[in-house]
Amino acid sequence: MGILPALTRSDQTELLDAPSIDLDALSDNLHDLCQVDHYLGGTALTWRYLLPMLRRLPRGAAMTLLDIATGSADGPRRLAALAHQHGYALRLIASDRLLAVLHYARAHGDDLALVRHDALALPFRTGAVDFVTCSLALHHFDPDAAVVLLREMNRVARHGLIVNDLRRSRPAYWGARLLALGPWHAMARHDGPLSVLRAYTLAETRALAAEAGIAQAQIEEQPLFRLILALNKA
Q1: Per-residue pLDDT tens for 110-148?
Q2: Could you tell me the CA-to-CA distances from 227 to 83, 135, 206, 224 in Å, in that order?
Q3: How far apart, in whole angstroms, are the C-alpha atoms of residue 114 and residue 124?
Q4: What would the pLDDT profile of 35-70 be if each residue is shown by its tens digit?
Q5: CATH classification at residue 41
Q6: Looking at the 3D structure of the chain, how many domains does it have?
Q7: I need a surface site. Which of 41, 60, 140, 177 has the fewest CB within 10 A?
Q8: Residue 105 lies inside a defined structural domain of this protein
Q9: DSSP 61-104
Q10: Can you tell me whether residue 183 is helix, strand or coil?
Q11: Contact (Cβ atoms closer than 8 angstroms) between residue 197 and residue 140
Q12: Direct distance between the N- and C-terminal alpha carbons of the chain, in angstroms, rounded to an integer
């Protein structure tokens, strides 16, 4: 048992989720998130779980990957590039609730389809896409909504789904506070530590998965205060 009590999950709203967002601040934040992903290896972690799913399927066949709350869409683009290196073709669909985010993603390339929608009501039929990914977004949803998100991801994914997110703990919070001292813009400096406070623990994520009907999913602790929820349906 630790000396200090466990951190209670925060319900404070992040700046990224505010009703009104300054577009310049949003652009700066998306750039910062790309840099954090690059240096801390978030997409590389998702790839570690996606590759075994791909290997159970024939090479050369065109497969679809839907990335929810895509931000700049840099993550799914990297996944597609890595898949190509291993002989797999991924057709990308990137989605977000904010039109400004999709405009930012489009400005960085027209190599994917963009869809604006509510992540809790995915506009796809059951089993419509091969893989569904969601990175650094689960903590933006309160528990009831997070269950719906996981249930929807499972519904539309034919072969597998992967959720890559932060893991709440005191060391993670102080690590985020330290990282916030870096060369980031105001939104990232504010939302980074708060994101950790809003994140779910392993036990909480397992409970969310069970309620969503995917208790069989792998839910594992990862370095740098991350967790992965992965369900291979192949």
Answers
A1: 889 999 999 999 999 999 999 999 999 999 999 999 999
A2: 22, 10, 11, 9
A3: 13
A4: 888 777 889 999 999 999 999 998 888 899 999 999
A5: 3.40.50.150
A6: 1
A7: 60
A8: yes
A9: -EEEEEEES-TTSHHHHHHHHHHHHTT-EEEEEEEES-HHHHHH
A10: coil
A11: no
A12: 39
- Flag whether 101 is in a domain: yes
What is the C-alpha separation between 45 and 67, in angstroms, rounded?
15
Structure tokens at 149: 């998100």
Calpha distance 218→221 (Å, rounded): 10
149 found inside a domain: yes
Q: DSSP 3-state assignment of 203? A: helix
Length, in residues, of the chain: 234
Inside any domain, residue 9: no
Measured N-to-C along each axis, helices 143-156 and 202-212 cross at an angle, to the nearest 10 degrees, of 60
> In angstroms, rounded to a whole number, what is the distance separating the alpha carbons of residues 106 and 87?
26
Domain that holds residue 104: 21-167+200-232
